[in-house]
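queue> pop job 88
queue> type: inverse folding (structure -> sequence)
queue> payload:
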């Protein structure tokens, strides 16, 4: 069992004075301390009191046992704000909290000379200075930890590696190159995202060319992809095309002769539309992933967009998500739905109602409100699946009758 001063040091280290530095003497009720240290009774109490008295005697005023003037009974343990912490941790042979804070601040400062891309140098230096200040003041240093040691060094090394990465690469390949371990980036990913957000404003490894696995994009119609090696024309393809998003690199260029783009939620409906496509650019998507967002972001700004999805609350929420993440004006297509036969009615669930209420509170989704209000009033989704809409009606609604 550690001596009584070790127990006192543990309590001090977990206190506000230990975490942030003492602005006044650190005190604790004498009896409370003995109870918390497990030394309140019997021989252990007697030994603890002897140790405390001896320590106070040799501390030259750094540790004081306050006593009642009349009875002489101990009431408080008092550690001096000036020099008390240094004395206590020297007595037990451990690094003091103040020294730990200084070492942690120096850890962050030491990375100021790390080479990072020019676009991040200013924010990198500013972030490190902020982290150093937080370390000294005892504030949270998330995603790092106090006493993290090797883990903190590994995280900082990985962070610099991600900022300097030149992808695209899959995460295990990048992890081996950066960390010497194929799994370490995945293990550190949640922490890396916190730091990346603070430094760059983007918390995704994909933004730096590191992918968990390539996202696939399925599309059909008149699309030209211009790469360094030439132009690929997809219009002649009779069936849908699926490509990795890694084919749509920043140096590539997209063009289309389509007069509009139609995003489609359901895969079966998408392929039926592709079979009779009159020249529309079709993109398969529900809630959009990074690949779909990249493709849409590369299309001309003046290209009109429509979305054909289910007319239930979830379908409307997908359209809301597409609008928000792409920043595009996307018109809903054929969202009116129809009543279901009584035997086939699907009542609204709690999640459906939450989605409707959230969307009804969003003025920017006002064009969806009539349908959502009707669903809410009916208490049923109605005939909402887009497969129920004949393909000819889709083309007619888009002006291709």
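queue> result:
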């Amino acid at each position: 069992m550690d001596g009584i001063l070790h127990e006192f040091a543990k309590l001090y280290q977990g206190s506000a004075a230990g975490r942030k530095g003492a602005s006044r003497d650190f005190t604790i009720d004498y009896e409370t301390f003995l109870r918390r240290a497990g030394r309140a009774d019997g021989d252990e109490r007697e030994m603890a009191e002897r140790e405390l008295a001896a320590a106070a005697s040799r501390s030259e005023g750094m540790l004081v046992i306050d006593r009642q003037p009349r009875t002489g009974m101990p009431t408080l343990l008092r550690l001096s704000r000036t020099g008390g912490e240094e004395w206590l941790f020297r007595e037990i042979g451990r690094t003091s909290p103040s020294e730990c804070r200084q070492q942690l601040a120096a850890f962050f400062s030491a990375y100021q000379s790390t080479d990072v891309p020019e676009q991040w140098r200013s924010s990198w230096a500013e972030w490190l200075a902020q982290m150093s200040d937080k370390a000294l003041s005892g504030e949270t240093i998330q995603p790092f930890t106090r006493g993290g040691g090797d883990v903190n060094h590994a995280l900082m090394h990985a962070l610099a590696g991600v900022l300097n990465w030149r992808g695209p690469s899959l995460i295990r390949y990048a992890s081996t190159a950066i960390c010497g371990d194929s799994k370490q980036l995945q293990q550190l990913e949640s922490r890396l995202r916190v730091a990346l957000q603070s430094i760059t404003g983007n918390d995704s490894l994909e933004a730096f060319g590191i992918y968990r696995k390539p996202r696939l994009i399925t599309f059909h119609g008149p699309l030209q992809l211009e790469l360094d090696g030439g132009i690929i024309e997809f219009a002649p393809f009779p069936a849908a095309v699926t490509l990795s998003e890694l084919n749509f690199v920043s140096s590539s260029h997209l063009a289309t002769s389509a007069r509009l783009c139609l995003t489609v939620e359901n895969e079966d409906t998408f392929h039926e539309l592709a079979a009779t496509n009159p020249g529309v650019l079709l993109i398969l998507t529900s809630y959009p992933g990074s690949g779909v967002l990249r493709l849409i972001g590369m299309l001309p700004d003046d290209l009109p967009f429509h979305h054909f999805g289910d007319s239930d609350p979830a379908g409307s929420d997908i359209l809301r998500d597409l609008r928000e993440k792409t920043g595009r004006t996307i018109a809903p297509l054929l969202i009116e739905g129809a009543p279901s036969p009584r035997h086939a009615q699907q009542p609204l669930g709690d999640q459906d109602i939450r989605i409707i209420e959230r969307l009804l509170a969003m003025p920017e989704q006002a064009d969806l409100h009539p349908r959502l209000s009707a669903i809410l009033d009916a208490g049923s989704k109605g005939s909402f699946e887009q497969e129920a809409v004949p393909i000819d009606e889709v083309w007619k609604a888009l002006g291709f009758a």
